[in-house]
């Protein structure tokens, strides 16, 4: 069962309150490079990103943020550290959400100014607590960075902002350790009502980071925890969207998109299935249809799995069988099979 959370609205995106778990990412361009950042946001949107966060480190960046916001249709969150004036400007320029770590904004009166303006403009605020920037007092109290410490820090800031009569809040408590991340979310889940932005912080490069994120995010989703997801990877943020979609599909949180099943191959395999399946997956990954597609390497186990899928192909000796909903619809030359399968998916 999904954890119940309060609904928060960022632009046209609902987070929490039973809304589907959303996928977000963060640009890695220099925010001052307006054209580059807008281009990346548009690519992220086409790949399935539903909310994008943009770093706003200085006044030049916040001026660029205003122009970027006007040029894209995706909801945009401004990521602000240290300088409360940047948050005020970003809200003025139409930010759909503000991400702050109240601990590094300094004087609570400055946080209060951000909250006051966010309230006037109906802009939600994400309170982000992170294992890498936990305050010293809490680290000393718990003798290191711990799940309990992360939760105490997050609850302290939630209480502080609630006392400012504001509840349009999204919470994130991220750790780079999967286990600590899991424990912290389990601890906080029933201690406050706000939606949770989940992910593993600084998880790493495409390969190791995707696995860490799959374990960390997947474990929480299976517990019903998590309202919006960001897979953090070092590299092109488009990879974050592809990885997030696969994690949400594997956890059966979303059904949209093509679920590709391909066999691991063995000594019976009749074709270069590794190459074939990665080419087919690359073509199918942006198709928004709720289908299972099977790509199988031989006539022994292939027809069974291919027949179970919505569309499937089972390679055999010099030929391939194309299945649709359990029926063989064509016997093809091996070289024609890939294209025929892709066409069936488009036509389905
Ligand atoms: S489908 Fe055939 S080739 Fe693929 S793993 Fe199974 S037995 Fe091996």
Describe this entry's structure for a reader.
The chain has 348 residues and is of the alpha/beta class. The chain folds into 2 domains: 8-250, Alpha-Beta Barrel (TIM Barrel); 258-347, Sulfite Reductase Hemoprotein, domain 1 (2-Layer Sandwich). It contains 13 helices and 15 strands. It has helices spanning 34-47, 59-71, 84-92, 102-105, 108-120, 136-141, 147-162, 178-188, 206-222, 237-250, 273-284, 302-308, 334-347, and strands at residues 8-10, 13-15, 22-26, 51-55, 76-80, 97-100, 125-130, 169-174, 197-198, 228-230, 258-262, 291-296, 311-316, 319-324, 327-332. α2 (59-71) runs parallel beside α3, α7 (147-162) crosses α8 and α9 packs parallel to α10. The longest helix is centred in the middle third of the chain and has 17 residues, at 206-222. It is elongated, with a radius of gyration of 23 Å. The chain starts with 7 loop residues before the first strand and ends with a helix. The site of iron/sulfur cluster (SF4) has 12 residues, from loops.
